[in-house]
Design goal:
Layout (H helix, E strand, L loop, with lengths): L1 H18 L5 E5 L8 E5 L7 E4 L4 E6 L5 E9 L5 E7 L12 E7 L5 E6 L5 E9 L5 E7 L3 H6 L15 E7 L4 E7 L4 E2 L19 E2 L16 E5 L4 E6 L4 E6 L4 H5 L14 E3 L19 E5 L14 E9 L2 E7 L3 E2 L4 E2 L14 E3 L14 E4 L5 E5 L4 E5 L5 E6 L2 E2 L2 E2 L16 E5 L14 E2 L8 H5 L19 E6 L5 E7 L4 E7 L2 E6 L6 E7 L5 E5 L1
Parallel strand pairs: 13-14
Antiparallel strand pairs: 1-28, 2-3, 2-31, 3-4, 4-32, 5-6, 6-7, 7-8, 9-10, 10-11, 11-12, 15-16, 16-17, 17-18, 19-20, 20-21, 21-24, 22-23, 25-26, 26-27, 27-28, 29-30, 33-36, 34-35, 34-37, 37-38
Length: 551
């Protein structure tokens, strides 16, 4: 057994040299048993198509986007197999008042037939970034809420903090496709506080109003896109909405149990606070409490409750995951947060110094090589049912699956360059293959019922079709005696010193029988030119077996 282990190590050392040829698609797949089984939904930037992949990177389903549009960050598969996707016109970015840009949400069937679409673009509003389908058939959307410079100044905004001819906080709308109407709305504009001018609205001492938004907090170079909310999530258990506000370095939770009218004010709903922020975390300086060392979030993305597909017994269930983009220069991390919530009073608890609890993450991880999981923007994290974490580093298009013992057991690099699929072997630079999020759906997800998930083709062009198999764990071959065979690129030499003939099988490391051989007396040469590069076991009935590498 000792010799077998040594040979296995030799085999994988040899394979590591072979594996370096893969630059895109699946790069690592080390432990099939530890990896969470499922299919990966990916929606690369600069193009309109969404792809469902198996863990070897093969497309098992594809939704083609409409002509003249491109991806705008995210899409979701519903439990009935429909796809909801966010799209933007293919004209590039524009300011809100220029009347072009991201403005379309579509719901299509599994066969890509349009169910409904929703556009939201006028002189005051434009949807952007993430969307969030609810269990009730509605969808939450993020929208800019455009105000003039004059309006902002009248509400206490310091004009010296404004570099563009607009001030556009965010708002949240809930759209009902059946009614084709907006049925609920929340605006940050309704919950401002300022301490510059007692003769203007919203005046108050900032630190005395931790549930309000300081209109003069500035961390985005005075741009109109003041908050830059980049993700939204809904908790149906609590009836709460969470938004990620990277320019404040904070996550906010608001109460959805309010009416739209209550959401404009400061009372009502389960929390009794109307549309005020009921929990915020990451940077207490944003409400004039705490100090620099209390800041925990740094232009973070994709704050989500760990709920989807998780059993209630899962260790992270109900807590919050977040991708912390700019933890330090050139280095990103992920974190898990456990808010302190009083379900009786329906209130989140503050610490003794009146900052929102908890004081820190209960779990943090960063890649030991900063350039692997490092992204100044974009990026995501999904908590999986088996406690693994699926992490996407957005600007270099790398997704890894982190096991419970903090090992990378699966890694994928988005095979796109500026919206075009690339061939295996292509070297991609930062921002070539922007990917906001990869989302893994369980094997038994209801949306897959009665649908074929047979592999169609690889997402990358000119793929190495044997690569994934070579990465999977070795089979347990326990021969009588083991030696590494001496072989050329085209021949395997089998040493048979007996007078018998033997039957043998060539088996891949995934357990698949490649072929059969008959071994005759003496030294027999067997052609293996048909074999792909990789490790194989030659299993001989009644004779020595061998583990070998074909280079």
């Amino acid at each position: 057994m000792r010799f077998y282990i040594q040979l296995t190590i030799i085999c994988f050392i040899s394979l590591s040299k072979l594996n370096s040829q893969n630059t895109v698609g699946v790069i690592t797949y080390q432990d099939k048993d530890a990896s969470y089984e499922g299919y990966n939904l990916i929606f690369p930037h600069y193009q309109p198509d969404a792809f469902l992949l198996n863990k070897c990177g093969e497309i098992v389903h594809q939704w083609n986007g409409p002509e003249g549009y491109r991806n705008h960050n995210t899409c979701y598969i519903l439990e009935n197999g429909d796809l909801i996707r966010a799209l933007r016109k293919d004209e590039g970015f524009a300011f809100i008042w220029e009347d072009i840009g991201e403005n379309l949400i579509e719901c299509v069937t599994w066969d890509n037939e349009l169910n409904w679409s929703f556009e939201y673009l006028d002189t005051t509003s434009r949807i952007h970034h993430d969307i969030e389908p609810t269990p009730y058939g509605t969808v939450f959307l993020i929208s800019w809420d455009h105000h003039s410079v004059e309006e902002a100044i009248a509400s206490g905004r310091d004009v010296s903090l404004m570099s563009q001819d607009a001030f556009s906080p965010d708002k949240i709308i809930e759209y009902d496709p059946e009614l084709d109407s907006i049925i609920w709305e929340w605006k940050a504009w309704d919950h401002l506080v300022q301490d510059r001018d007692s003769n203007k609205p919203n005046y108050g001492v900032i630190k005395d109003h931790p549930h309000r938004i300081n209109i003069n907090w500035e961390n985005n170079q005075g741009r109109a896109d003041w908050m830059h909310v980049n993700s939204i999530d809904y908790n149906p258990i609590l009836d709460q909405i969470m938004i990620n506000v990277p320019t404040f370095n904070e996550i906010w939770i608001i109460d959805h149990s309010t009416t739209t009218e209550e959401a404009k004010g400061f009372s009502g709903g389960n929390s009794g606070k109307g549309g005020d922020i009921i929990w915020r975390w990451g940077n207490p300086q944003a409400y004039n409490r705490g100090a620099e060392e209390d800041q925990k979030l740094f232009f973070q993305h994709d704050a989500l409750w760990a709920l989807d597909y998780l059993p209630t017994t899962q260790v992270d269930f109900g807590n919050i995951s977040v991708f912390n983009n700019q933890t330090e220069p050139g280095h990103s991390s992920i974190g898990m947060i456990s808010p302190v919530f009083d379900s009786i009073a329906y209130q989140y608890t503050l610490s003794i110094d009146s900052t929102f609890l908890p004081e820190n993450f209960y779990f943090e991880w960063s890649h030991p090589e900063p350039n692997i999981i490092s992204s100044s923007g974009l990026s995501s994290i999904q908590v999986l049912p088996n406690n693994n974490k699926l992490i996407t580093s957005g600007r270099n298009g790398i997704t890894v699956e982190l096991s419970q013992d903090e090992k990378i057991i699966w890694q994928y690099k988005t095979p796109f360059k500026n919206g075009q699929r690339v061939a295996q072997g292509t070297e991609l630079a930062v921002n070539d293959n922007l990917t906001f999020r990869m989302r893994r759906y369980p094997i038994d997800y209801p949306g897959f019922d009665n649908h074929s998930l047979y592999p169609i083709e690889y997402l990358e062009l000119n793929p190495d079709k044997t690569f994934c198999d070579r990465l999977l764990p070795t089979i347990n071959v326990e021969p009588d005696l083991i030696e590494v065979s001496s072989l050329s690129a085209i021949e395997l030499l089998v040493n048979n010193q007996t007078n018998k003939s033997y039957q043998a099988k060539l088996i891949s490391l995934t357990g698949k029988t490649i072929g059969s051989l008959t071994l005759e007396q003496g030294i027999t040469s067997h052609d293996i030119s048909h074999l792909a590069q990789g490790c194989y076991a030659l299993v001989v009935s009644g004779l020595n077996s061998q583990l070998f590498v074909k280079m």
